[in-house]
Amino acid sequence: MAPDIQAPRGTQDILPDEQPWWDYVRDTAEKLCGEFRYTQIDTPMFEDVALFKRTVGDTTDIVQKEMYVFQDRGDQELALRPEGTAPVCRAYIEHGMHNQPQPVRLFYITPIFRYDRPQAGRYRQHHQFGIEAIGDASPSVDTETIEVLWRLYENLGLTGLTLNLNSIGDAECRPRYLEALRAYYSDKLDRVCRDCQARVERNPLRLLDCKNAECQDAVAGAPALTDYLCEACGDHFSQVRGYVESLGIPHVVNPRLVRGLDYYTRTVYEVQPVEEGGQSTVGAGGRYDGLIEQIGGNPTPGVGFATGIERIILNMKRQNVNLPDAARLAVFVVCASAAARVFAFKLASDLRRAGLSAVVGDSDRSLKAQMRHAGSLQAAYAAIIGDRELEANSVTLKRLADGSQETVPMGDVASRVRP
Ligand code: ATP
Ligand code: MG
Question: What is the set of domains in the chain, with CATH numbers?
């Protein structure tokens, strides 16, 4: 039966079964941020709409087609957060963080709202984990953010990813490139899509990013950004590449890579999984040296990334990544006889005191039914206590991932199952 009011299109309930995946991704991200000393920042779920118009850009898809904008009862025009960087930069200025040692290293985990076309891996409310390093222009900081993103995927067990890198220059050299790009497109306007026809004047860099089949020939022959970089941008980019190389992170320079937000300068990057397709980018980021000035701060460089948690989990499942035992229910205690019940409760209690999670099965149900229950709770281990085990003061400990089992003294269970 369906209720006559359902969750809005493009949103989803994250049900209890899914939560271990979310916990695992969040925990892994937070732990990693601790290693690099990025600390968490939470900003409001909505902001003055001008914040995004000015930074993300008036002519971008996000501002033109995707933002959830509303007027509150005091006639303030507000937007549900469509991305995480501009709010963090606003907070950086508002709280005088330029007085702290630079760069200021921050991370966030937050819902993001975009009126996107819902499909697998694309929602109207999704969640992003992102980091920002604000106040340092040096290429080693670009690389640090790339390293955090790469390590996140590595720690989560994702494989087969490709890091795409590019530099889109700065106010010094980009105008020259845009001129060349416009000139190149000037005799191809009848062969590209309507959006691209409009982009030539309004936002030419986005021409490179068009996903329409009819525009791909034009994109393929377009001049390469990297050929137009000024000396400072060229130097910066080659240093980023050198550092990335030295960290052993496999990457390709993709001169067509641009991003959907106007505030980027110099380094941009994206991580793609093996599977192709428009919905496939798992994470993306870059440098935004003009952003803070655009919203009234002193000129301050910054760099960061955002990665979609739904897409991370989607890719983990596609790649059959198993949740580690530490992210699961540690022990499901199976009572194979009524007499075992009191021992089962005692064992579960001891395990919890030892810092492990434990659930006791229903002794009125069959061994098989209890094992099924353990499976549906995604337990790492089942500890089976029956008459035979009671006599020996032991349990049969079964690891559910591979079915291996052993007999263990009751008092040793905690140390045996500890991940
Ligand atoms: P796309 O080209 O797929 O629309 P984007 O360039 O709009 O992505 P970003 O603004 O860079 O995406 O957001 C960072 C990450 O957030 C993306 O790499 C992706 O993992 C995730 N993401 C973006 N939009 C959505 C969405 N509508 N639903 C789910 N995840 C999303
Ligand atoms: Mg998008």
Answer: 16-173+229-318 (3.30.930.10), 331-417 (3.40.50.800)
